[in-house]
Structures are given as C-alpha cells and as structure tokens.
Amino acid sequence: MVNGELIIHRLQQADSGMYQCIAENKYGAIYSSAELKILASAPVFSTSPVRLIATVGKDVSLECRPRASPKPRISWRKNDRRVQPSRRIILLRNNTLRIINSSRSDEGSYVCRAENQFGSAELITMLLVKEPMRVELSPIRVEVTVGESVVLSCKVTHDPSLDVSFLWLLNNQPLNTQQEGSHFEYIQTQSSTADLMIRSILLKHAGKYGCRAQTSADSVLAEAELLVRGPPGPPGVVIVEEITDTTATLSWSHGVDNHSPITTYNVQARSPVSLGWQTVKTDPDPVTGSMESAMAVELNPWVEYEFRVVATNGIGTGDPSTPSRAVRTKEAVPSVAPANVRGGNGRRHELVISWEPVSEEFQNGEGFGYIVAFRANGTRGWKEKMVTSADSTTYKYRDETFPPLTPFEVRVGVYNNKGDGPFSGVVTVFSAEGEPREPPSEVQAFAISSSEIKVMWKPPIPGPGRPQGYEVSFWKDVEQEEMGKKKRTTGNETTMLLSGLEGNTQYLVSVKGFNSVGQGPASSAIKISTKKNAPSLPPGNLMWIQEGNNVSLSWDPVKARDNESEVIGYKVLLRQEGRGHSQVMRTPNSAVVLALPEGGTYIIEVRAVSEGGEGAASAQVRVLTSSGVRAKSGQLSVHNLPPVLAWTALFLSLMVPSFPF
C-alpha cells in the first residue's frame, strides 16, 4: 500500500472479492468500496489428491472441477495412458469420469488435467476396487410370544482391509436402546458379527428390524421381520342398538388379534350401584371370536348401565374396549321382596314392623314403595298400609284394644308405577309388651362398711313387661325420696353395691325394673344402716427392735371413739423401697415379729381395722438390712438365713402370734 494505493503482485483467483478504503482524520472518517473480479486465471484445483474406494459391480464417478478462466480443456489419463471413452467409461459434460459396473481392472491412478492459455493443473485420484460386502441377518422371520426373548444375529463378509461398523434399525428408524430400558442389548463378539438381544418382548417391539453394515467402500442393509403374539387388543367401541327392561343388544368391531386368533368375547357391565365392572350373561353364550354382536340378558329394570367387551385368545385376555354410552333399561313391576322382615319392642299398644330396604337396582322403576300387611293370629282379613318412601325400614301401628305381646302375622310387599310386586314370606311379630308390671321381690340390703351397702333382689314373675335392667333408689331416712340418688344396672344383674355413703347413717332402699317402654313399680323401701366409721386415730408410739433378721414391731392400741367402730385388729403393710407392691399382714394384737430378707430397705406402716373399715396410717418405719451387721436396738441385723426359711418364719409369726420366733 503506497500513498493510498493498494497494489497486488502475482494476482491469484483467491484475491477476488470486495475491498474497502477508509480515510479518516480528527473530524471523522469516510469510506470507499470496490470489487475485484479475476477475469482470467490459470486452472487451480481446490482439493489435494483423492483416494476413492469402490466395490466390484457398482458405478463410480471421478470428479474434475478446476477453477479457471477462461474455461479450460480437460483430459483424463490412467497410469500415464490416455483414457478412451467407451460404453462403460463415459466422460460427462461436467468433466466427471463415470465408470459403469466397475471391476478390479479399473483400479489405478487417474489424472485429470485442466489447461488454458494462462497455465495448467492436474488432480490425481487413486481408485481402489474391493469385493462387495455381504450381510446375513438371521432369522429373517421369527414369531415370539409376549414375555419371551430372542436374538437377531448380523454377520458380515467383507474385504479384510476395510473396517466395518453396524447400525440397528426398527421400522427404518435408528434403534434407541436407552429409551427401551433393559429390553435391548447389543452383543458384538467379533469385528464382523453383531447380535441384538431382545428380552421380555412387548407387543410394541414387533416390526421390521434392519442391520446396516458400513465400510468406507460400501453400505449394505439386511432386514428381518419380528412378529409378536400376545393378548388381543381392545375391540372397537360398544354400541347399544336396542334396550328392554332386562336385555340390551350390543355390537362392536374386531380389534387386532396380535397374531393369535380371538377365541371368545366377554361382555361386562357396570351401574351406579355395582362394584365396578361385572360379567353379564349373554345370548348366545359363549360369544365366539368371529362374532361382533350379542345380547346382554338378565339385567335389572330401570338401572343405568355402561357396557364394554373384552377379547381373549390363546395367549390371554386383552384390554377392554371403550365403554358404551350410559343407557337405562326400561321400567318393570318389582320382582324382589324385602328381606329380613321382623318386629317387636315399641311402646304400649304398638306393633312395630321392620325390614331391610330393597336396593335401588331392584326397584325396577319410579314411584317405588312398600305395602305392609298384618293381621292378628286367628283372624282372616289383612290390614294393608302403604309406605311411600323407598328408604323406609320401619312401620308402626298403634291400637289401644290389643294387649301386650299379641302375636300378628306380618308380610311386606313392594310396588312401583308399573304395579305391585311380590310379598315377603309371612312371619310372626309380637306387639310391644309394655313397661314392667311387677316390682322385684325379696329385696335385701347388707352393710359392708361405713360407706358401702350391698343390695340384692329377685326378678318379678315372668310375663309381659320383662325388665331389661333395674334401678336402685336410695336416700337417707331423714330425707325425702326425691332428694335421694339412683343407680342402674348395666344388664339383668340382681345385685348392686352402693358406695360413697355416710357412716353410721340409716338409708332407705327400693328397686324397680325398666325396659325400652318405661319403668315398672318400685318395691317397698327397706331400711339399712351403714356401719360406724373406722377409727380416726392412727396407731401411735410405733417401736421396733432388730434381732438378727427379725424385726419386732409394737405400738399403742387404738381406742375407738363413741361414733366409731370397735377395733378388731391391725393391718401391717410392708413395702420394699423402690417398688410399688406392698405385702399385707393382719394381726389381732398390737405387736408383730417380721422376718425380712437381707440386702434391702423396707418401709413399714400400721393401720387399725374395724367393721367400718380401715383407720388412719401410723408413722412409717424405714429399715435397712445388710449382711454382717450385728444386732442392736434401732437397727436391723441380718444373718445368713435362707430367704425361704425367712418368709416361712414371717408367715408363722403372722398366723400364730404366740409362735416362738
């Protein structure tokens, strides 16, 4: 570049293109553009020598496309000999040399020479002709059943100087083993052999499998067909062609049989009250695989149904068809009578009749209800009452004239807008028996303690108004009965323990029976007094002396006050520290000797005992036992007496206070 001029020496074709000059100073810049076209140049080849591999019998093309201007003259030579066009060797208009049905004799070095007035250039193409590759895929047709496995083997015969690669295809699309999980696996034990393992085959794996083998000289595809037998596919959508009260005429179209002929069709139906899809009876029965229609029979009137069809072949049962539209069967007279007709209970002069309601699928139409018919035993005419609610389960009839437990013959029928249906069988139902009529007899009461009374009685004479339980009323003698308390039995027990009472107090007690109708009369009130209260004072001055493993306890006798029960003995409670369970000993005296096992801490307390109950507890004594401690007052000394003997001595000291411990 000199003084703003751009000079290009030894111009070449590659120098052609757009050029831009930029002039600028501190005030700005301006641009100028120009295009350089090379109108004349010597021939140039953009590629280096070419190596071309072909196979015997295939056509091959050797290209010669130099860049030159003006258009160059082209000549071809092979191994330094000019190529002469023939019927098999053709020079095309674009200077490409076309060899038809190539053979091994066509191998060699081909030179394309391009020349014009500016110069010349040559392109060397080395042509190699190899034997054609052969690919064998076996088996070429295979039939398998869903769940089985198969191996497709692809073997290649090719020129050993060439490397071969394999590509598996399914229905002309590359096989993606990752998308298919563990169903597919490539197995290549030799460079010229590739196998495809297909495990646990599914219906979707059926199709045309291709093995494409490829070298730098050739690409060959071999194909095999895989047929998968399996359960049939879903039949076509079910159409309801005609509907009656108990039948539906259905039609459908065949689905795919998956290479195993369809043997039978199964017709299924569901309704709002059914537990899912249920197989229905058909006419004809069975429905064979060649049929495309059938009649569903023994349907329930006035029920909305959907229908579907399932096909079966020798492999198994396939998926069901798309359900039909929902259709309702026509109305009909009810055909099912209520079940479990029974009765009883109720109030005085009532006849209570109950039954299990008829489910909606057996009501057969609108306006469904019940007809309750009954008559007293020994009479001729039936009384009939209409119950218009389809959900009703009970009817009550009241008549002041019939006595309790009057037997009636009862039956319950059904009806709807189409007419009356059947009646249930006749059962005997008794009218209500009424509340108990007689009071309990031989009521007795016994004071257990200062706060408890036990009441006993006998049931009334059997008859109408049997008690289902009893109610005991009790109140103080100085009170009105209305101020008292009531307590009921949980069943037909004839004893009750009244607790929480006041000591040394007279109570009145009466008993009455009750049932679902009401209460019966009360027995005559009897009087019973609770025992005096237990002594309020605890045993005092509790002392203990240890001798060996024996602990001698003594205390001051407890004297009852005027309003307290006389002391009849004492209760000694022995508990090992850290344990909740206590040993209890009773003695009529104010002293006792205890034999304690060694190695523990024991807590002892004493209570006075009377007919009114137990008195207050004494102060606690805490005794520590351990081996090797000598006996002394105020401590516990234990020698090595076996535990069995120790507890035996303790038992004797309690049972026989005079026992020489």
Walk me through the structure:
The chain has 661 residues and is mainly β. The chain has one helix and 54 strands. Strands 4-12-11-7-8 form a five-stranded mixed beta sheet, with no helix packed on it. It has a five-stranded mixed beta sheet with strand order 14-21-20-16-17, with no helix packed on it. Strands 24, 25, 27, 29 and 30 form a five-stranded antiparallel beta sheet that branches. Strand 11 and strand 12 (119-130) form a beta hairpin. The longest helix is centred in the C-terminal third of the chain and has 13 residues, at 643-655. The radius of gyration is 57 Å and the shape is elongated. Residues 628-661 have low confidence and may be disordered.
In short:
The chain has 661 residues and is mostly beta strands. Strand 22 and strand 23 (248-251) form a beta hairpin.
Strand arrangement across the biggest beta sheet: 4-12-11-7-8
Mean pLDDT: 87
Q: Roughly how many Å is the radius of gyration?
A: 57 Å
Low-pLDDT regions: 628-661
Shape: elongated
Lay out the secondary structure.
Elements: E1 17-25, E2 28-36, E3 41-44, E4 50-55, E5 60-62, E6 67-69, E7 73-78, E8 81-82, E9 89-91, E10 97-99, E11 108-116, E12 119-130, E13 134-138, E14 141-145, E15 150-157, E16 165-170, E17 173-174, E18 184-190, E19 193-198, E20 207-214, E21 219-229, E22 239-243, E23 248-251, E24 262-270, E25 278-279, E26 282-283, E27 287-288, E28 293-296, E29 304-313, E30 327-328, E31 339-343, E32 350-356, E33 369-376, E34 383-387, E35 394-398, E36 407-416, E37 419-423, E38 427-430, E39 441-447, E40 453-458, E41 469-476, E42 485-488, E43 495-498, E44 506-514, E45 519-522, E46 526-529, E47 540-547, E48 550-556, E49 567-576, E50 583-587, E51 591-595, E52 600-610, E53 613-617, E54 621-625, H1 643-655
Parallel strand pairs: 4-12, 14-21
Antiparallel strand pairs: 1-2, 3-6, 5-10, 7-8, 7-11, 9-10, 11-12, 13-15, 15-19, 16-17, 16-20, 18-19, 20-21, 22-23, 23-28, 24-25, 24-27, 24-29, 26-28, 29-30, 31-32, 32-35, 33-34, 33-36, 36-37, 36-38, 39-40, 40-43, 41-42, 41-44, 44-45, 44-46, 47-48, 48-51, 49-50, 49-52, 52-53, 52-54
